[in-house]
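BUG-334 | component: ligand-complex export | severity: low

The export step for flavin-adenine dinucleotide jobs runs without errors, but we want the raw record kept on the ticket for reference. Input record follows.
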Amino acid sequence: MRVARGGARVTLAERAPGPREGACGDCLGPAARRHLADLGIPTDDALFRVRLWRGGKRAEARLPFVAAAVPRRDLDVRLLDLAADAGVRVRRGVAAVALETAPLRVRLANGEVCAPGAVVLATGKHDLRGAPLRWGPLEGYVGLKAAVPDPGLAADAVELLLFEGGYLGCLVAGGRATFSAALSAAALRRGGGSWRGLLAALAEASPPWRARLEMAAAARPAAVAGLPYGFVADGVREGVFPVGDRAAVVPSLMGEGVGIAFASGRMAADALLAGRSAADYGRAAAAAFGWVRPLAWAARGLSGGPVQALAVAAAARAPGLLTAAARWRLDPGG
Ligand SMILES: Cc1cc2nc3c(=O)[nH]c(=O)nc-3n(C[C@H](O)[C@H](O)[C@H](O)COP(=O)(O)OP(=O)(O)OC[C@H]3O[C@@H](n4cnc5c(N)ncnc54)[C@H](O)[C@@H]3O)c2cc1C
């Protein structure tokens, strides 16, 4: 949008023909909220509290900021509509199948070949020929997400159920209860290798969640595998500006992936408008988002059962610790 408004001709290829459920927890942090406000998109479902669970034990605290529950299914379509209004040629249901450099070319699934002056690479965690996704320090994680009609859960809180090898998040967004999980492949195997099996095992271990997990088990989840938490783009190819998860992959638990997508998108747009090279942009983005690496290691530490039990017990005694931990985040800014 920013580049189109700056006078350049922009084409956006989105492989999804219409709204679709992506593996995202729908919890947007303060940075993403700011970007949405700049775009005139309201974030009505505010989140003020965080509830942390491990088995039947829980801790609760207020968030040190206001987060928002925003259904990505609707948001992504809204953003494409806004891009079209800003003059971007939006092509829905058209997938890019390969990226070539020297010379710069994008091959589309319908056989077309584009020869742009620059490519903003925004394919998220999906592979693309010529631009394979590389691993981060924390490998082999799986993301799952499903939404069901809200059974009457508290709408002002994000809830996180921790379990050995991962977590399941739950919140109410746009009248639906959203469930999203990020877990190691080993944890998924322990849950029988399926969404239903995982939720059944969690319901067994956490009775207060049983009713809602039974509802969620009936939904068909969106899934993404091989999450490269802690990945930061470093290899620079001339004319290619990676943004969002292509620039840096933050652990999902932090709720900052969308904030990074907005912030890096804006950085790339400003670099393009100023005529800066992809190498310049790549260095600036790596410096701006390098903090996802230590966070990936921290998330790994928190995926162990004994650490989780300790964290919930400590936060139950001193909720201020949980508030402080939520404050200890790095703002993607932008
Ligand atoms: C389980 C889980 C929970 C999460 N929870 C949160 C959360 O609560 N809050 C938060 O901020 N972040 C969360 N994240 C992270 C967040 O989803 C991502 O960081 C964010 O969506 C990255 O945005 P993106 O634009 O880079 O990629 P995406 O949002 O994945 O968008 C990529 C787009 O490119 C399209 N595409 C892909 N390949 C092609 C192709 N070849 N041709 C054309 N189009 C293509 C896709 O259809 C998609 O629309 C979560 C992630 C996971 C896995």
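Assignee comment: Attached the raw record above. The chain has a mean pLDDT of 91.
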